[in-house]
Amino acid sequence: MPSSDQPWVLGVSASHNGAACLLKGDRIVVAIQEERILGLKRAPINLKKNCLAINYCLQYAKITPADLDCIVLSSQSSLDDPSNTYTDNPIIQQAINAKIELIGHHKAHAYSAFAPSGFDDAAVLVIDGMGSPVSDLDKDEQKAIVGNISQGSETISLYDASGTTLTPLEKHLVTNHDWLKPYQGDVRMADFASLGGIFSSCAGQIFGSYSDAGKVMGLAPYGSPTIAAEEFFSINNGGLTFHNNVPKRFTFSERWPQHQQLYADLACSAQQALEEAILYLTRQLKQKSNSKNFVYAGGVALNSVANERIVRESGFENVYIIPPAEDSGAALGAAYYGLWSIKPTNTKNTLKSDSLGAVYSESEIDTAINNSPWVEVINDQASPEDVAELIANNNIIGFFAQGSELGPRSLGQRSILCDPRRKDAKKVLNDRVKHREGFRPFAPVILAEEVANWFDLEGTHPESPFMLRVLRFRENAEEKVPGVTHCDGSGRVQTVTKENNGQYYEVLKAFHAKTGVPILINTSLNVMGEPIVETPEDTLYSLAMTDLDYIFIGNKILGKKKRFKSALDFYPYFLQPDSLQAAKTQLQTSRQLQVSTPWGEANLPIHDPLTLQLAIDGADGLINGKTKARSVLKHLQAKQSKLSQSAFIRSLVQLRRGRVIGLSTTPKK
């Protein structure tokens, strides 16, 4: 029995993008992705070992494992895998009063979509690359499997939800877990056998990374659909059969920016095929469910272009898509599953804000400022009007507010804001701050009450609080905001309200009053390859490591001191040089390094070759606290003439964020 009528419930998503979520009754106390605090993008969690995300949640709530009433664990890999031996996890061993539950990956996604929707009932769709194997599915889920496949892993799931119960309607599998089959040496495009696999395969072929599916959606409007959907898959007996016709066309290993038009056409074709498949599945779901409400989760649910077609064409009256639709959101679903197993009451509270991380105190922010000698306080009582004034005067602002977002999108808690009227905004942001490909769009954030004046709604509702819809600008509107208009006249929209967005809304309202434009550019506060910032310390380093003009944090506007010109002015040094020396052999073989964090010890994988080399040899001993980063770079460029400044800074960012190195403004003695 729970210790009170408001039980403590912990949900954990063990996957390639792991997370933890803590509930007190039906209130989300805190939730966090492992990547934000480990400093490694898409940081995995396995159930055998403790993870930082669990400690982060318990520390913030000021409770111990013994206070937990229920722990629900969800894993993408088989629960029989040795990495998921949760009885070895020290936190779970200490949770002596907790009921332990295990649920499948798609089931956790489904609960994450339905529980926060506020609906009494809903039709539920889950689509991703691959979820749990059949052996981890409940019997009622196994009965819903489409076709004659008896072994494999889930890729598509349809449910009917009512009250606190989810009933499986269809379960689509991939055989032998082969959702993506790369070729040795990547000499040709990988075969795929799921909808998520299509985009991962395209991302691998185009960009060299299977994790860059989001880039494929951004590239698609630059191309034409030269490959028919039938080349990707066909629909047979109610299921999707995937083909290798498309991979056979791409038997070369040159990546972007080579073959630009060919790759843009591939991206466009994949996008069109995905939309056709999703609309087929939503029609199937509409026939099987009597609900007028639709909820959606899984990594594919981050495809905002396809989502807009669901809103307009699915036939459902109400559509709710959870902001952390990818694997981090499964932690939220796992937690709600546990809560409802104890208290089967759906309170129908709608999640209206993705600000689920820890809220940092004024003293914590001040401590970070005092420990950052490159920072100058410009205004210690800044108003929204002050921030809007800076943006209107062509300054790029880092914006830190409240708790961080759980999902992959920056929604005003950890954002970079810029004036959309600037014709050079995309180039400036990409070149000076983000250091990413020029084709990638930036998102417009708009006052909710102004949406209809700037975008073609065509009879749909105006809400898009989580940046999960794409709308077309109205005629003559896009020319007023060239910095935020994609090449096809669209924008991935976030709508904000006073009730849900606080200071973020007030800054935008002040900008509207000053300029007549109710829109700002919003992009994530990070450098390419780095997770979105989490702590005040991370945020102040982002000011130092990029060409941001100012940071707004804790009602203060901060800038860089004039004598500090660049990230290359730092003196890098190893935080634990003795332990690093002992770990070099392990680092060379396993590419992992044990690091100390405020939330415990952790293993930090290092994938990037330059970052790994710097960790191993310290730039031939120059990462010693006595040599400026500028001199370290010159030393490396003498040996590697093609090494760019931005690549070197990215490696410094990754090592600093992973707590491998520190950065000093003065030389160490």
UniProtKB/TrEMBL annotation:
Domain Carbamoyltransferase C-terminal: 388-558
Domain Carbamoyltransferase: from-to ranges: 9-76, 98-335
Pfam families tied to this protein: Carbam_trans_C, Carbam_trans_N
One MF annotation (Gene Ontology) recorded for this entry: catalytic activity
Family: Belongs to the NodU/CmcH family.
PANTHER family: NODULATION PROTEIN U
Entry protein name: Carbamoyltransferase
